[in-house]
């Protein structure tokens, strides 16, 4: 039962309550079937279950109160956008990428149907006014990572201020300089929005905090390198998705708490599945909340997902910002430098991503790779060819899947995944 306070809050945020009710109605049952019904879950997942049960409630209330106390909220859509600058100016950051089917028909009234579902859902949430995080954001931050997003921001701007960062598409010196200039321009924008100057002290604090979040996720992922895996891939995917919403300090404390429990399991040789269960690495496009379809199929077909080379996976946390700079200028350079180590398919050439995947297969002892890309995502879809070639040369089996946020193809995907797993033996 939703508290009356939340309904008042949602109304004050300008949300469409009827549509919001309709959108949320199936979530508790879905969450029960996909998550709570799993056997042998770590007890520390209780916190993340709680966050999920309150996903449009408590955290939004915190943000509303944060704004009443003089803070501001920025909504972002890509791991290249530096959270550190928003935090250093006294703001909060929320990752707004959407992974739901519900708002897509509304978006298709404006965008071509042949647009990536992530882009359609992100705009659709705004059009339908069913995402309290979009509603509570003072401004959105887009980027020029792919053509679809680049053009969608122009429309999104009609529904709320949308700042766009220009991301280069190569990593040569001239591109690094461009990105550094973009990071500085973003700093000026954030300072203008907040009315507060970013100082070496506030930026150092923000760099430390976001690095702590990345380290906590690194430690969590390290636990998955063990056989038997101490936690399901579905649970880790959920945690990664919640990392984009939750209060960073609290998230770090709770993730460390979970890691301690998992490390105990590892010491005792306990797993969430038996040792020898086929281990799958998923690579490709992000899986924003609540896009759990592929993981659920894999893990109900007798395998376990041990790593995601995605932006809701390793690309989000593997690289840290160097924290030894003492001047603001050097700090900004370090913030920009971290992003240039992330290997998204929007870059060319992108050998770094292939090397990352080969390395992760070894580190996580994966038996096979599932290359997943959202429909109409050209960069990831085309890059599949080179990734598959490298994996085949290394003797690693790979399955390519293209899908969207709907449930229509679930049975067909399950058949393909099961045939792939049988082949792994
Ligand atoms: S896949 Fe590329 S564009 Fe999408 S969030 Fe990741 S880095 Fe950004
Ligand atoms: S998944 Fe691909 S097409 Fe969709 S927003 Fe990301 S880069 Fe663009």
Question: Could you walk me through the main structural features you see in this protein, from its secondary elements to its overall organization?
Answer:
- This protein has two domains: 4-194, 3-Layer(aba) Sandwich (Rossmann fold), CATH 3.40.50; 205-319 and 344-424, Rossmann fold.
- Helix content is 54%, strand content 10%.
- The strands form two sheets. Strands 2-1-3-4 form a four-stranded parallel beta sheet, with helices on both faces.
- Helix 11 packs across helix 17 (328-339).
- It has 20 helices and eight strands.
- The chain is α/β, with parallel strands linked by helices and 425 residues long.
- It has helices at residues 4-12, 17-24, 27-36, 45-53, 58-68, 83-88, 104-108, 117-128, 132-136, 147-156, 173-194, 200-223, 233-243, 248-268, 293-299, 314-317, 328-339, 351-363, 378-393, 410-424; strands spanning 72-76, 91-95, 139-143, 162-165, 279-284, 304-309, 368-374, 398-403.
Explain the layout of strands and helices:
Elements: H1 4-12, H2 17-24, H3 27-36, H4 45-53, H5 58-68, E1 72-76, H6 83-88, E2 91-95, H7 104-108, H8 117-128, H9 132-136, E3 139-143, H10 147-156, E4 162-165, H11 173-194, H12 200-223, H13 233-243, H14 248-268, E5 279-284, H15 293-299, E6 304-309, H16 314-317, H17 328-339, H18 351-363, E7 368-374, H19 378-393, E8 398-403, H20 410-424
Parallel strand pairs: 1-2, 1-3, 3-4, 5-6, 5-7, 7-8
Helix pairs in contact: 4-13, 11-17, 12-14, 15-20, 18-19
The structure holds iron/sulfur cluster (2 copies).
């Amino acid at each position: 039962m939703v508290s009356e306070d939340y309904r008042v809050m949602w109304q004050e945020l300008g949300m469409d309550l009827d549509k919001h009710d309709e959108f949320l109605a199936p979530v508790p049952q879905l969450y029960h079937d996909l998550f709570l019904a799993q056997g042998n879950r770590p007890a520390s997942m209780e916190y993340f279950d709680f966050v999920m049960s309150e996903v449009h409630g408590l955290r939004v209330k915190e943000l509303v109160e944060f704004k009443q106390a003089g803070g501001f909220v920025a909504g972002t859509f890509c791991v290249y956008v530096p959270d550190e600058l928003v935090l250093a100016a006294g703001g909060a950051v929320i990752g707004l990428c959407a992974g739901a089917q519900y708002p897509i028909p509304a978006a298709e009234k404006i965008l071509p149907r042949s647009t990536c579902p992530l882009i359609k859902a992100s705009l659709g949430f705004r059009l339908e006014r069913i995402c309290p995080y979009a509603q509570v954001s003072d401004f959105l931050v887009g980027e020029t990572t792919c053509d679809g997003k680049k053009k969608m921001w122009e429309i999104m701007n009609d529904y709320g201020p949308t700042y766009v960062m220009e991301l280069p598409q190569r990593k040569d010196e001239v591109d690094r300089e461009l990105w550094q200039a973009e990071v500085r321009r973003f700093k000026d924008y954030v300072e203008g929005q907040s009315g507060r100057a970013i100082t070496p002290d506030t930026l150092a604090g923000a760099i430390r905090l976001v690095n702590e979040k990345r380290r906590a996720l690194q430690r969590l992922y390290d636990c998955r390198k063990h056989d038997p895996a101490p936690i399901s891939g579905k649970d880790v995917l959920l945690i990664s998705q919640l990392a984009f919403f939750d209060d960073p300090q609290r998230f770090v404390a709770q993730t460390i708490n979970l890691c301690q429990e998992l490390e105990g399991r590892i010491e005792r040789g306990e797993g969430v599945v038996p040792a020898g269960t086929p281990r799958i690495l998923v690579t490709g496009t992000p899986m924003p909340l609540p896009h759990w379809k592929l993981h659920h199929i894999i893990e109900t077909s007798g395998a376990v997902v041990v790593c995601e080379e995605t932006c809701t996976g390793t690309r989000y946390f593997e690289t840290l910002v160097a924290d030894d700079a003492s001047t603001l200028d050097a700090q900004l350079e370090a913030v920009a430098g971290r992003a240039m180590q992330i290997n998204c398919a929007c870059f060319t050439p992108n050998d770094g991503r292939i090397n990352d995947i080969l390395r992760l297969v070894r580190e996580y002892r994966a038996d096979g790779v599932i290359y997943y890309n959202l429909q109409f995502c050209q960069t990831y879809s085309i890059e599949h060819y080179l990734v598959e070639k490298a994996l085949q040369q290394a003797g690693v089996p790979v399955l390519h899947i293209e899908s969207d946020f709907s449930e229509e193809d679930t049975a067909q995907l399950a058949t393909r995944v099961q045939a792939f797993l049988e082949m792994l033996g």
